[in-house]
Amino acid sequence: QPITTDMATLTREVKKFATDKKLEIETLKGREEYRREFLGNVSHELKTPLFMVQGYLSTLLDGAMNDKTIRKKYLERAEKGVERLIYIVQDLDMISKLEIGELNLEIAEFDIVKLVQNVFDLLEMKASKKDILLMFDMKYNKPVLVVGDQEKIQQAVMNLIVNSIKYGKEKGSTEVSIEDLTEHKVIIRVTDNGEGIEKKNIPRLFERFYRVDKSGARTEGGSGLGLSIVKHIVEAHDEKIYIDSTFGVGSEFSFTLEKAKVIKKLN
Ligand code: ADP
């Protein structure tokens, strides 16, 4: 390669080199910051339930164990804390696999109507505790075949419905509907008439660990990972997720899925 002697070209190249390096350093710094923030969040999320479990266990050991009613109550609470820890660790595991792209999707055809009914069955108890009605738009009395990783899609639908219950009003309702969006796509909507989300908070909802109410004072414990898992799952399918929410009125989360191709039988 001939050496560039033209001063203008040389200056341009030096400048470009410097800008590229600067960008590279900034990206690295960004990643480092991201990692630090992530670790900070993880330990923070783990601390609350861990201290809770420790608290109940030491109170029991300090003598509370002798009272039969208290013993049961505290053991149950400690168990709840451990349960919560398990959920957080499972969510973390899922999210790290999704982020490093290790989670291979097992793509197959399945009936999304049946999947939603399945999730309803699993969440019926949780909903009834808040007197929340789970409704399914019964336009679809027949199967709707879609293509995707059934287990992951079930997790996504589950997270959305769990949220609609967690952030739903007592005696409220959650409605799931499945509609044709285009010839090849369906859209699954989960709508609630719960607390809704303020406009300013919407852009950050899908971030890991993001929670609108960080006070921890509320009873609904969560890790703030649920929605980012949903987003990852939907995007891993090359599909889209939408949110529409009005503060004080309710929210609607929806995502698209590819329909299974109908192969016409020609006899
Ligand atoms: P988590 O529920 O564990 O806090 P998510 O990632 O599932 O985490 O949700 C992030 C935040 O988005 C929640 O903390 C809540 O503030 C808000 N949110 C999610 N779903 C709803 C909903 N259906 N209605 C109102 N707020 C919601």
TrEMBL record:
One of its GO terms (cellular component) is plasma membrane. Keywords: Kinase, Membrane, Phosphoprotein, Transferase, Transmembrane, Transmembrane helix, Two-component regulatory system. The keyword Cell division does not apply. The keyword Kinase applies. GO terms for biological process: cellular response to phosphate starvation. GO terms for molecular function: phosphoprotein phosphatase activity; phosphorelay sensor kinase activity. It comes from the Bacteria. It comes from Flavobacterium fryxellicola. Residues 41-261 form the Histidine kinase domain. This is histidine kinase. It catalyses: ATP + protein L-histidine = ADP + protein N-phospho-L-histidine. Its EC number is 2.7.13.3.
